Amino acid sequence: MNNENNQSFAKGLNFYKIFWIFYLGCLAGVIIETIWCILTNGYFEYRTALILEPLNPVYGVGAVLISLFFAKLSGWKNIFIYISSFIIGGIFEAACSIFEEFLFGIVSWNYGKNNLGILNNRTSLIYCLLWGVLGVVWVRIIYPWISKCIEKLPNKIGKILTWFLIALVSIDILFSSGALLRQKARRKNVEPQNFIDEFYDTHFNDEVLKFFYHNITVKD
User: Fold this and answer.
1) 3-class DSSP state for residue 108?
2) Which residue in 32, 146, 191, 204 has a CA-CA distance of 20 to 30 Å to 159?
3) Quick one: pLDDT at residue 13?
4) Residue 174 to residue 184: CA distance in whole angstroms
5) pLDDT, greater one: 54 or 11
6) pLDDT at residue 165, rounded to an integer
7) How many CB atoms lie within 10 A of CB 64?
8) What is the pLDDT of residues 149-203, one digit of tens each?
9) Whose CA is closest to 169, among 11, 27, 33?
10) Residues 213, 201: Cα–Cα separation, whole Å
11) Are 24 and 53 contacting, i.e. CB atoms less than 8 angstroms apart?
12) 201-212: buried (b, 16+ CB within 10 Å) or exposed (e) per residue?
């Protein structure tokens, strides 16, 4: 029994480790975006994708995809990892943009010609190049280190903490999606239908959401 309790809850690439990679990737995404904004624009801007937590699921899912794709292919040469990450990252970023526009009627990023935008400006050549670099760094350095750190968590504590974070992230995704869907309804002059709509209109109106989603472009 003691041996079982001392075993890692996230040995290998199982469900628990995949979630932690997702969560840490989400958190790292906000940090990366915020630092990038400071370096390129010269000012601070809170670059989250969720309202209740500083998380960006685009980076979280990207980290999971790269980890799953290269988990058993670490023997690949760096150039092949780079090219694959370049392609996967660019296509995934564009897919997220399409999904966001379809579901919420908004576009959070549009790179344009000045940023070498591709795939209808839903991603850019510059960011694809960065996805390639990130893929190599992730496979060679970050993932092995993070994997060992995750596996050091005690079995019982690791599982409890994982399910707590799953619940927290799920609530945040539902809450944030609700705020954006209500914003979409307000643009169509739809009156609040219940107390939830009234709550969003009062506490998370367009001006408040602008703090979380600075670069939103409304699509008709």
Assistant:
1) coil
2) 32
3) 84
4) 15
5) 54
6) 97
7) 19
8) 999 999 999 999 999 999 999 999 999 999 999 998 998 899 999 999 999 999 9
9) 27
10) 16
11) no
12) beebeeeebeeb
